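Can't paste images in this forum, so I'm doing it all in text. The chain is below; anyone willing to post the predicted structure tokens underneath?
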Amino acid sequence: MSDDDKIRGEALGINAAALDWALRVGDPAFEDWEGFTHWLDENPAHSRAYDTVAAAVADGAELIGSAAPANDDAQPATMAAAPRRPRRAWLGGAIAASLVLVGGLWVWQAGSRDLYRIETAPGQVRTVALDTQTRVDLAGGTAMEFDRKDPRFARLESGQALFTVRHDEAHPFRVTVGEDTLVDVGTVFDVRHDGEDLSVAVSEGAVQFNPKAQDLRIAPGEVLRRHGKAGDYTLGKIAPAQVGEWREGRVTFEDTPLEAVAADLARATGVAYAVAPGSTDRKVSGSLLVAPLRDDPAALGPLLGVKVREDGNRWVIGVP
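Text version of the structure:
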């Protein structure tokens, strides 16, 4: 079964439940308000589906009702009077027609996305809650897209994000990054996408990388890296505590090129760090708190053993 088929199946399942609730709630004898409220609160998609289905059922019934004869006695005397259709049977027909309308709406919804975009400025951190147990923390300088109709989907355009995900084997959380796809098999993972460079680090659970291609499993304490679009994928080790540590105001570098250091620091601090010509490939290591660098960007120098000088509105990092 393809990913699109799975998504379509999940949407149809939610809408089927929504239709069932819509018909039950419309019964004057309905009493299960607690169960109905609990179902609505389980997932934001439930309330959206219920509103859509209830409106479609009402519109379909109203449409059929407006087409029904207002008075059977008004038929011409020369015509044989047809037996009156029982009201219960008429309601059944209205509901059946509404089902057709809703079914068409489901197919349209399942095959499309309703995306919205969120961006953060350098130095800004923003949290997006997708449900009570799933959130995405966006680092500074990040652009992402989410789906209003599917809280189990996200697209990272650029930047860095920490995913804390409620695992659901029947409907796994998916992240697309360019042409790559990440499928959640656990709980907490960090994704960074700078230009054509990509890294995926896992602290809890696991992530399946490109299930239809490389199909690599990234376990806790592992980080997958790719340098450049055509670069090789490498799987290395990382301390689980370092995964997403930027969320707590710390960044750690281990034999990292200055070019990547400058990009990470600019994202985390909002300070415009740049690298001096000829120093981009110089590698450094260290663990830094972000807040002091916002107050004094030049403090980076002794911490990493580099030279930092102010150049207009930039802070240039170079080899001493």
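The mean pLDDT is 81. Residues 10 and 237 are 35 Å apart (CA to CA).
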